């Protein structure tokens, strides 16, 4: 099983509009961050998590044109507003809609905003065949378990992927560690986790608490994601404990 970090930036990306790099060194290419999304795959199965506004460029960089499924963690713009680019994936599939999954509330919100993508309109066929995301499901040879994570006034879907005896979890956009999350994120080979900045934030995890969770949960390896422009790559590498590192756009980890 393999995961590719398509994007590891927060909602404004790095740099922010205005060429605002904050504390990030603009000469370090791993500081350039598009909006958060990952691709989890095996030799036979390819699953996209979220369609960020940068999805087209991310897909081109990763070199894929087909998917077995898309899972949306929640309906915030930085995680779903690249949804229209799935139309080209549908065309690459000879007109077969892309399979899409989301928790019921997220599904409802996506359907309100992008109904044409799910139901078609005039001469345009549906792009996505949407269905509710259950607590557990197997897609191809990847088994997926799901937990609802507190994210301000809503929840996001935390995801654990198991295949061929290996495990990857993707925990993005949350601000609290519940007992159900702790249970799901035990015994991981790789944990890709929300880590917006060093200072506390009302709806996202910050560095201090992430490091405490890593100490408690003991994943074999942890990658930080959804980072803002205060999180300089080289500074993090120099200060993070063994087994923890910042992710970067285009990073691939094979287990």
From TrEMBL:
Stretches assigned to coiled coil: none
Broad EC category: hydrolase
Record-linked Gene3D superfamilies: Ribonuclease Z/Hydroxyacylglutathione hydrolase-like
UniProt keyword annotations, A-Z: Hydrolase
Residue stretches making up the Metallo-beta-lactamase domain: 34-226
Pfam families linked to this entry: Lactamase_B_2 (PF12706)
Domain of life: Bacteria
EC number(s) reported in the record: 3.1.4.55
Tagged with keyword Hydrolase: yes
Gene Ontology MF terms: phosphoribosyl 1,2-cyclic phosphate phosphodiesterase activity
CDD domains: metallo-hydrolase-like_MBL-fold
PANTHER family reported for this sequence: HYDROLASE C777.06C-RELATED, HYDROLASE C777.06C-RELATED-RELATED
Protein's name according to its UniProt entry: Phosphoribosyl 1,2-cyclic phosphate phosphodiesterase
């Amino acid at each position: 099983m393999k995961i590719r970090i398509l994007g590891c930036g927060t909602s404004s990306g790095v740099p922010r509009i205005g060429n605002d790099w904050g504390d990030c060194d603009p000469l370090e290419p791993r500081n350039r961050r598009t909006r958060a999304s990952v691709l989890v795959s095996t030799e036979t199965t390819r699953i996209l998590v979220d369609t960020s506004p940068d999805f087209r460029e991310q897909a081109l960089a990763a070199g894929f044109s087909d998917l077995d499924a898309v899972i949306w963690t929640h309906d915030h713009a930085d995680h779903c507003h690249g949804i229209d680019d799935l139309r080209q994936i549908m065309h690459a599939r000879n007109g077969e809609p892309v399979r899409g999954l989301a928790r019921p509330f997220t599904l409802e919100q996506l359907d309100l905003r992008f109904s044409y993508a799910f139901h078609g309109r005039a001469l345009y066929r549906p792009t996505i065949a949407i269905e509710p995301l259950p607590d557990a499901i197997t897609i191809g040879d990847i088994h997926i378990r799901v937990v609802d994570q507190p994210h301000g006034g809503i929840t996001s879907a935390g995801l654990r992927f198991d295949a061929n005896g290996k495990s990857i979890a993707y925990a993005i956009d949350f601000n609290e560690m519940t007992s159900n999350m702790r249970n799901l994120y035990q015994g991981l080979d790789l944990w890709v986790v929300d880590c917006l900045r060093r200072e506390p934030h009302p709806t996202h995890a910050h560095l201090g608490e992430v490091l405490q969770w890593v100490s408690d949960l003991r994943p074999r390896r942890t990658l930080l994601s959804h980072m803002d422009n205060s999180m300089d790559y080289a500074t993090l590498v120099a200060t993070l404990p063994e087994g923890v590192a910042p992710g970067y756009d285009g990073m691939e980890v094979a287990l």
